Fold this sequence. Notes:
- This protein has helices spanning about 5-15, 20-25, 30-55, 55-65, 105-115, 125-135, 200-205, 215, 225-235, 240-260, 270-280, and strands at about 90-95, 140-145, 150-155, 165-170, 180-185, 190-195, 220-225, 260-265, 285-295.
- By secondary structure, it is α+β, with helices and mostly antiparallel strands.
- It has two domains: about 5-55, no CATH class; about 80-295, NADH Oxidase (3-Layer(aba) Sandwich).
- Helix 7 (about 200-205) packs antiparallel against helix 11.
- The longest helix has 25 residues, at about 30-55.
- The model has no long low-confidence stretch (mean pLDDT about 95).
- Flavin mononucleotide binds near residues 115, 116 and 268.
Amino acid sequence: MDTKTFDYLYNKAQGDSAESIMKELEITAEEYAQMEQKLAPVLAEIMKERAQAEKIGERFLHLTNYLYMGKSDQEKGMHRPPAIKPRTGDQIALPAVATIPLPEITLHQAISQRRSLRKYSDAPLSQEELSFLLWSCSWARDFRSSERLEITLRNVPSAGARHPLETYLYIRRVTGIKPGLYYYHPVKHLLVLVMNGPEIERKIVEGCFCQEMTSASAVNFIWTAVPYRTIWRYDQRSYRYMYLDAGHAAQNLHLAAEAIDGGACMIGAYCDEMMSEALDLDGTEEFVIYIATVGKKEPVITVH
Ligand SMILES: Cc1cc2nc3c(=O)[nH]c(=O)nc-3n(C[C@H](O)[C@H](O)[C@H](O)COP(=O)(O)O)c2cc1C
């Protein structure tokens, strides 16, 4: 899905007039008519689903009550899912976590100075700084694998240690690393190149509705969830837990970014379809759950 298609469908579903949609999308009456014809079945499907979407939050809370849960796949004896998604591609080793000099900032300072930062300096992050950020939110301090169970343990908590989150980075400015989309391997602490080139950057920025910080940041963290990892144990209640897990990872990143004289901004406003396409995910077995932009703070200019 591209931005124009999304905007057309969104505005149509909101009941906006043809005139206002043409104006917003900057398209002619002819182009509008073409879109209308082409997207009629998609729009019809959206309008049908919309009726069900009403009060879905309340229904979700209600139906993920323990009383409605059946036996989980784990309880049924189904084989355990892997704790990490296998990924192949060019690898970049990151500085070992144990050797990273930790910045001198107190927890009190990090918490009290944290703000959503949407403007960044042009300074790149060093590989040590990137390594530190990943250590804070995604790194696996332990990996345990047996026939019965496979888990990672990280610096953030996760319901049942299921850790359903995967971490992708869109790197723009990290010293010695070419811009591109990378997958982070939490056990091996390395990056795997997924894709580079201008197209992937455009897709990610547009997928985040062109919010300015997504094209100003040094790195965009994109967390995905692999729901079955948690569902295997907690069935549908897992959809509560995955989002809580993502919040833990994000807050650690937020505070770690403060510690390197940087900052972060969380992003929940993104287009599901565009982000799935950008990362080549099916959007169900694995989907984008949370995004964060990170960069160094702009220098403070004092006027005398
Ligand atoms: C779940 C979540 C989603 C958010 N999504 C966005 C977003 O899409 N764009 C944005 O500019 N800020 C986003 N934010 C940042 C909030 O706007 C910000 O935290 C809030 O305004 C409070 O400001 P502070 O973080 O500086 O204290 C998000 C924050 C959270 C927790």
